[in-house]
Write a structure and sequence with these properties.
five-stranded mixed sheet; 355 residues; 30 strands; 1 helix; mainly beta; four-stranded antiparallel sheet
C-alpha cells in the first residue's frame, strides 16, 4: 500500500507501507470512518529521500484538499489560477503516474481568505464515482466524475457567499452525498443522489453564518446521526431525512475543524470570535444545551486542525502547533507539548501512533 502526502509546493508523494496489497482505503476526509484513524499496522515512522519514499510527482495546480485513496487510485482536487479551472486528478498509487486530469468547473475565484484556495474541499470516492465541491462568485458546483475521468453529472445546489471562501468536504451516506453549505448568504445543508445529482433533502440552518466544518456520521442507540457544526451551534441531524434531532449552543460562532465523536460524546471545537470547545453527551431531542453539555473549555483550542479521539484520549493540536492530550469525559488537560510551528494540519492515527 502507499500513503499519499501532499505539499504546499504542489508535489504529491507516495510513502511505502510494507506488506499490504489489500490495505484499507482512505475514501474521504478523515478516512473511512471520518475519525482520522486507520486500521493499518504498517505505517512508517521515518521517510525521506531514499527511505520509504517510492515516488514524488508534481501536481498540476494548487489546493489545500487532502488526498483520498481507493484501490490503486489516488484522487485530489486542484485549482489552476491562469485559467480559473477546478480539477479532479487521478494518480496511480504504485507509480505516481497521472492517469487523468478532469476540469469540472471554470469560473472566477470568488472571495476567500488569504490561506484558502480554489480547491480546499477534499473529494469523496465510492466504487463508481468521485465527488467534489467547488465555489465561485456565482455559486456552488457539485460534480461527480466516473472512475475513468468522465463527468457523470454536475449541479448547482445554491448560491454561495463567504468572505473566506469554501472548505467543507462531501460526505457519502446511503444513496446520497451530503454537502455542507454554511455561509454568510443563504445557508443550507443538502443531500444529492449519487447517481443523478438530484436533491434528496435540504436542511436550512436558523442562522446564515460562514463555517467550514465537514459533518461526521456516528451510530448511537441503533440509529445513524450526522453531527454538524455551524451557525453558532453543534447539532445532530438524521442523515436520511435531514431532520434536526438535537442541538446545543456554541461553543462559538464559526467552525473550521471537524468534531470528534466517541465514548457516547461529541467533542466540538470552534475558533471565531473565540477559541472554545465543548463536549456533548449523545441523546435527547430539541435544544439540549442545559441538559447534555458535559464540559466547556476556553483554552488554547484548535480552530483549523481537527481533533483526534484515539486510545481513550482526546488529542488536539492548535493552530500555533501546541499539542494537548485531554481526558475526554472531564476535559482535563493531561499534558501539553510543542509539536510543530504554526499549522493547519490535523492529526491522524495508524499502527498505534499519532501522525
Amino acid at each position: 500500500m502507499n500513503l499519499m502526502t501532499r505539499s504546499a509546493a504542489g508535489l504529491l508523494a507516495g510513502l511505502i507501507l510494507s506488506g499490504a496489497l489489500n490495505a484499507e482505503d482512505w475514501p474521504g476526509w478523515r478516512g473511512p470512518r471520518g475519525d482520522g484513524i486507520s486500521i493499518e499496522q504498517t505505517a512508517p515512522v521515518n521517510w525521506g529521500p531514499g527511505e520509504n519514499l517510492s515516488w514524488k510527482v508534481p501536481v498540476p495546480g494548487s489546493g489545500r484538499s487532502s488526498v483520498i485513496i481507493s484501490g490503486r487510485h489516488a484522487f485530489l482536487t486542484a485549482g489552476t489560477a491562469d485559467d480559473l479551472c477546478r480539477r479532479i486528478l487521478c494518480f496511480d498509487t504504485e507509480s505516481g503516474k497521472l492517469l487523468w486530469n478532469t476540469v469540472v468547473h471554470q469560473g472566477p475565484g470568488g472571495r476567500m481568505h488569504q490561506d484558502n484556495t480554489m480547491a480546499s474541499s477534499t473529494p469523496a470516492v465510492d466504487a463508481e464515482r468521485v465527488y467534489a465541491v467547488f465555489v465561485d462568485d456565482v455559486g456552488m458546483t457539485v460534480a461527480a466524475v466516473d472512475r475513468s475521468g468522465q463527468i457523470a453529472w454536475k449541479v448547482n445546489p445554491g448560491t454561495f457567499y463567504s468572505n473566506h471562501g469554501f472548505a467543507a468536504s462531501p460526505v457519502l451516506h446511503g444513496p446520497g452525498v451530503i454537502i455542507n453549505g454554511h455561509q454568510d448568504g443563504t445557508a443550507f445543508v443538502c443531500m444529492l443522489d449519487r447517481t443523478t445529482g438530484k436533491e434528496i433533502w435540504r436542511y436550512t440552518p436558523a442562522v446564515n453564518l460562514r463555517s467550514f466544518s465537514t459533518p461526521v456520521l456516528t451510530e448511537f442507540e441503533g440509529r445513524t446521526l450526522m453531527i454538524l457544526t455551524g451557525s453558532r451551534q453543534t447539532a445532530a441531524l438524521d442523515p436520511t431525512t435531514g431532520r434536526l434531532i438535537w442541538s446545543v449552543e456554541g461553543p462559538s460562532e464559526k467552525f473550521v475543524c471537524t468534531p470528534s465523536v466517541g465514548m457516547g460524546m461529541v467533542f466540538s471545537f470552534a475558533g471565531s470570535p473565540d477559541k472554545k470547545s465543548l463536549a456533548v453527551r449523545l441523546g435527547g431531542t430539541g435544544d439540549v444545551t442545559e441538559t447534555h453539555i458535559a464540559w466547556r473549555a476556553e483554552r488554547a483550542m484548535p480552530y483549523v486542525p481537527s481533533p483526534l479521539l484515539f486510545n481513550g484520549r482526546l488529542h488536539i493540536i492548535n493552530d500555533l502547533g501546541v499539542y494537548s492530550c485531554l481526558e475526554p469525559v472531564s476535559g482535563k488537560v493531561l499534558h501539553t507539548a510543542r509539536a510543530l510551528g504554526s499549522t493547519y494540519s490535523s492529526p491522524v492515527a495508524a499502527a498505534g501512533r499519532i501522525y
